[in-house]
Amino acid sequence: xxxxxxxxxxxxxxxxxxxxxxxxxxxxxxxxxxxxxxxxxxxxxxxxxxxxxxxxxxxxxxxxxxxxxxxxxxxxxxxxxxxxxxxxxxxxxxxxxxxxxxxxxxxxxxxxxxxxxxxxxxxxxxxxxxxxxxxxxxxxxxxxxxxxxxxxxxxxxxxxxxxxxxxxxxxxxxxxxxxxxxxxxxxxxxxxxxxxxxxxxxxxxxxx
Length: 208
Known about the structure:
Blueprint: H1 17-22, H2 34-55, H3 57-64, H4 77-107, H5 112-118, H6 124-130, E1 144-148, E2 151-158, E3 163-169, E4 175-177, H7 185-198
Antiparallel strand pairs: 1-2, 2-3, 3-4
Helix pairs in contact: 2-3, 2-4, 5-6
């Protein structure tokens, strides 16, 4: 277990909060244990089984007949095919979430070596190929796009005030334009990310 004593934990109201947020903690994570992995398997299975029951033709037939879907019916080959289809959807979800996490981490200061290490230890070049836009060179005149939590934001630099600001459209179609008050790129991207998360599309709600 990593020694946690030296890791700063300021409150958001603390004047050092944003500078602490922009500094990468090393190591960024502790290796998951076998118990962690088993718990993850159980939670993923719960999610994909729920989807499989919603898309399974057999399960839909039981629902139409107003009959309960007994768990033993999950062993039917057609239901297992529905489960396999649900697992594929889970894989797509993981890919989307991984791209978002890599983008936020990369544009917050992580490099491709660190992204590759987090993604199971792939090489720097492989991480760059997987997420080509995650790590960018930030010039003072550059506007930097970000997609996260179903929304999109663009972080800009205001040369007059030498400060960063952002425009964002969240998944629920809420729009926000911040003032150029962020002292660093990391602070602006954190503000944009916080807004996008606060207005993410609720679970199960279709896009607007």
